[in-house]
Amino acid sequence: MQVSYTAAEIIAITQPKSTRGATTERVQGIAALGDARPGDLSFLGNAKYKSEVPSTQASVVLLPPDYAGEPAANQLHLVLENPSAALARLCARIEQTLWPQPVPGIHPSASVAPGAKISATATVGPLCVIEAGAVIGERAHLQAQVFIGREAVVGEDCWLMPGVVLAASCQLGTRVRLQPGVVIGSDGFGYEFVQGRHEKIPQVGNVVIGDDVEIGANSTLDRARFSQTTVGEGTKIDNLVQIAHNVRIGRHCLICAQVGISGSTTVEDYVVFGGQAGIGGHITIGKGAKAGGQAGITTDIPAGAFVNGTPAVPFMLERRIAVLQQKLPELFRRVDNLERTARGTEKSSS
Amino acid sequence: MQVSYTAAEIIAITQPKSTRGATTERVQGIAALGDARPGDLSFLGNAKYKSEVPSTQASVVLLPPDYAGEPAANQLHLVLENPSAALARLCARIEQTLWPQPVPGIHPSASVAPGAKISATATVGPLCVIEAGAVIGERAHLQAQVFIGREAVVGEDCWLMPGVVLAASCQLGTRVRLQPGVVIGSDGFGYEFVQGRHEKIPQVGNVVIGDDVEIGANSTLDRARFSQTTVGEGTKIDNLVQIAHNVRIGRHCLICAQVGISGSTTVEDYVVFGGQAGIGGHITIGKGAKAGGQAGITTDIPAGAFVNGTPAVPFMLERRIAVLQQKLPELFRRVDNLERTARGTEKSSS
Amino acid sequence: MQVSYTAAEIIAITQPKSTRGATTERVQGIAALGDARPGDLSFLGNAKYKSEVPSTQASVVLLPPDYAGEPAANQLHLVLENPSAALARLCARIEQTLWPQPVPGIHPSASVAPGAKISATATVGPLCVIEAGAVIGERAHLQAQVFIGREAVVGEDCWLMPGVVLAASCQLGTRVRLQPGVVIGSDGFGYEFVQGRHEKIPQVGNVVIGDDVEIGANSTLDRARFSQTTVGEGTKIDNLVQIAHNVRIGRHCLICAQVGISGSTTVEDYVVFGGQAGIGGHITIGKGAKAGGQAGITTDIPAGAFVNGTPAVPFMLERRIAVLQQKLPELFRRVDNLERTARGTEKSSS
Questions:
Q1: Residue contact C240–B244, C-beta within 8 A
Q2: Which chain A residues have a beta carbon less than 8 Å from that of B212?
Q3: What is the pLDDT of residue C231?
Q4: What is the pLDDT, as a whole number, of residue C92?
Q5: Could you tell me the pLDDT band of residue B343, with boundaries at 50, 70 and 90?
Q6: Residue B165: which of C92, C180, C256 has the nearest Cβ?
Q7: What whole-number distance in Å separates Cα of residue C63 and Cα of residue C82?
Q8: How do residues B107-129 score in pLDDT, each as one tens digit?
Q9: d(CA B54, CA C65)
């Protein structure tokens, strides 16, 4: 993050209700209250850190209206209705400098097949490959070394980071953001066992990604056997996630890193999967269901359920089992004792 | 999938024993009986869906000889010995249009070092890099942005999809198919702890891949310390799989997504690993053994065994444990009661 | 591994104290004692394999001073203080032939933005992309198809293998070695749920990698929300590992394949994580702590602890639980029997 803002520029971006104090420092970083140094901006986003404000070394501090303390020397307090939202606005501004608006056009080093349709407002960066029949929408940004296969479609305002592969016939909606190394449209893992060998079942479907989807670095999404593997509008997928063929993911789901979803499973809207969770094939995860990290799910999960563990059970049961498992050594001793007592009782009562 | 076949073309591809009815629709998609719309082809591959045939909207339906119903209006029934096999033939045909036969030759944007030996019938696509001494076999297809390291060997009829890395000295047999982003020949993870630091043990072996192996997107296979990491003929590996250095995988195995196999382990022929299974180092998995998803294996597994869970135990035992774990809260209450009773009995019998 | 050394060359590299016997074979491979064939070099690194020396077919054998046996015909024994260290020296020599010293300069096919600062001694290989403001240090080696984002910094003597992505503003120390497909600086996974949608929290921090760090193939490290995601000096990370935003990893850690570390977690120096372990967010793993493969950690772990299982508990407890779980069927039967006996006792004592 290479930033440098004057106090006046910060005020213009964050639009505070009022200010207290002043600073001659330029803002060159953002940090938590306790970590901040002169030249940093900090913020009080959670009331429990209130006690850290008086001693922070930050040059600029974003504060809520109910914070009454005075700034230190050479420190500027900005009083805002919502310091977190103001910080987000500042970060969005910084983001534009990290990744400035790309210049439309096709870099001379890109390899574009005849018959590809590329919008005049799109940016095709250095060393991209675009095969025949592909369509690149308005203002789409293929940053560098991106591959777009035959007849694939990139929607408006998409951003494909370096090394992304969008294989033949796959489709992206608008504002889709693909982190580096994402592979969309690899073959589904389908074979038939014939005379001692695994014969490939051709995978001739595609992958269709909805609007506002984001997919993390090096994640992989397989094309359907036929028909489509789908990801619904607004769903966010983290890094190193595997989505198998014919999976259907709903809208506004959150799928954390290293999750794997097996073939032909349906994930309804607003589902949340913790990191490294594994989801079996041919099942349905109901709307709004949640699974903890490393959960292993092999059966349908009802809407709204929160499950954990392998095999996954309701979260509270899993917590209870986890506690009791640690008491297993004690339980075995207790049962040993009961048996000893019972043998004694039997003798004495015989 | 952009397809368009007349009824006559479908008949020519699938070679039915007989036909019933007729359709004027072109076949532009494939779908399950219940999902199919006019213009789709569907099929009865499993007798349990027989009741869905009369109401399907598919324009063409592949049916087994024992299906007796009549087609709907503007619907064509094709009667075949094996509808699934006929469908596979059709999909294979569609696959050729998705990925048409590449034109032999070296794309002008590729970077080929002097001394690389490239067959005249091979295709080296745009922006590939081939280092000195590499050998590319007959009809091999490096699609785009592929990297082939020094002295590496690509066998006949291999297909390396965009972004594949085959590092120095590694070898592929014939008809090997590598999905996008596969890395073959990264360094094994080997260090010696010397005076508070991890000193690298040079990894100077290679990776040797047998004929007809397929490897999924973004999977990684490490080169051996010395000697070879090997994958036997006909083995299929899914996406995001990790194969460590000096692993030896047999023939015709199935390794599902996100599996990890630790260093120097031997996996014999016909082994099947479910998704996210983790296999420890320096062990042997016997011929035809199977492990369930997320299984954690740290000891040798005998041939033919089916194991599950972490640590992995025989499948039926793991199922039984999983059920009993959910009864742990009840078991603790039962033991509480027994203890209460025992205390009462002791008192009353004393 | 394509090697060919005369016996004299092997002697020059390994510097033995004394030799026994002689061979006319050139050394063309390295193999374990039992696997070696004529033309191979082998070694006795562990006394337990001593009995394999007399029958090995290796042409050259590295042996410790206390090994007294005589070489076979056409076999050369080299007596060394430390055969393993001598082997490491030989492997380091072989490594230089696998990956010979790159020639400094910028390959004409690379795409370098104006304003990038590239040392004259650095090597920028074919089809690399370097954005504006990036800095490439002395003798750094970008092998091929590497991407370096705006204002990113590559330290001296780094080696970035094919397909590596170092995103904007991220920084590498000296001698950092990145295996193929590593992504550094992808967006952290941060969203706020607003009116039924996940709104992106801009991720404007960076990633800072210390000296002598090595990162395995296709691993991903996310940039911080603001501030930095950090990896300390000398830490080694295996393949397909996920490091989330704002994670701080100490010095000299070992992180095995497919581990995932969630956001804002601190990992202190000398920590070791086994393969596929999952580490929750906002926790601290104390200095020198270890976690077994597939462990699931959701709470702070004290320095020096060794934990295992999900949820992770002290290693010895986890081993005990694992054994007792397999006795659960038996335990339930024992409690059934106790209850039956208790009912009988109650009756008889009533």
A1: no
A2: 197
A3: 98
A4: 86
A5: confident
A6: C180
A7: 8
A8: 999 999 999 999 999 999 999 99
A9: 84
The shortest CB-CB distance from C1 to any of B149, B169, B313 is to B169
Q: Choose, from A141, A245, A252, A282, the residue flagged as catalytic.
A: A245
User: Which amino acid, residue A331?
Assistant: L
Residues B182, B186, B189, B195: what is their CA dihedral angle, to the nearest 10 degrees? -150
> In sequence order, which residues have a C-beta less than 8 Å from that of residue B344 and are 6 or more positions away?
none
Distance between CA atoms of residues A334 and A323, nearest Å: 17
CA angle centred on C132, ends C135 and A119, rounded to 5°: 150
Q: For chains A and B, count residue pairs whose Cβ atoms are closer than 8 Å.
A: 190
Query: CB C163 to CB A163 under 8 A?
Result: yes
Determine the residue of chain C that is closest to A108 in CA distance: C111
Prediction pTM value: 0.94
- Name the phi and psi angles at C96, rounded to 5: -65, -25
Contact of B276 with B255, CB cutoff 8 Å: no
Rounded to a whole number of angstroms, the distance from the CA of A126 to the nearest CA of chain C is 7
Q: Chain C partners of A258 at a C-beta cutoff of 8 Å?
A: 242, 258, 260, 278
d(C-alpha A128, C-alpha A114), whole Å? 14
Query: Does A321 contact B310 at a Cβ distance shorter than 8 Å?
Result: no
- C346 SS3 class: helix
Report CB contact under 8 Å: B186, C161.
yes
Q: Give residue for tokens 């520029």.
A: A9
Return the C-alpha torsion angle C231, B166, C31, B240, nearest 10.
60
Residue C310: closest CA among chain B residues belongs to which residue? B310
- DSSP of A267-327: E-TT-EE-TT-EE-SS-EEPTT-EE-TT-EE-S-B-TT-EEETTTTEEHHHHHHHHHHHTT
Sheet holding B272-273, edge to edge: B105-106, B123-124, B141-142, B159-160, B177-178, B214-215, B236-237, B254-255, B272-273, B290-291, B306-308, B313-314
What is the spatial distance between Cα B287 and Cα B253, in angstroms, rounded to a whole number? Answer: 9
Closest CA to A4 of A40, A35, A31, A36: A40
Continuous segment of H or E residues that includes residue C63? strand C60-63
Band of pLDDT at residue B46, cut at 50, 70 and 90:
confident
ipTM: 0.92
Q: Which chains touch B (3 or more CB pairs under 8 A)?
A: A, C
Give chain C's radius of gyration (CA, Å): 28
Q: Which amino acid is at C147?
A: F
Q: Is C227 helix (H, G, I), strand (E, B) or coil?
A: coil
What amino acid is encoded at C18 in this protein? Answer: S
Structure tokens of A169? Answer: 């016939």
Find the CB nearest A293 among C165, C280, C349: C280
- Provide the token pair at B32: 């399950």
Catalytic residue among C77, C107, C141, C245: C245
Instruction: Convert the pLDDT of each residue in B192-243 to its tens digit.
Output: 888 899 999 999 999 999 999 999 999 999 999 988 999 999 999 999 999 9
Distance from CA of A300 to the nearest CA of C (A): 23
Contact indicator for B213, B243 with CB cutoff of 8 Å: no
Element (H, E) at C324: helix C315-325
* Calpha distance C115→C322 (Å, rounded): 59
Residues of chain A with pLDDT under 70: 1-2, 345-350
| Chain C adjacent subunits, 3+ CB pairs under 8 A | A, B
Longest CA–CA span in chain C (Å) reads 98
pLDDT for the residue numbered A92: 86
Q: Who among C3, C240, C294 is closest to B310 (CB)? A: C294
* C235 vs B197: CA distance, rounded Å: 9
Query: Any idea what DSSP says for residue C299?
Result: S
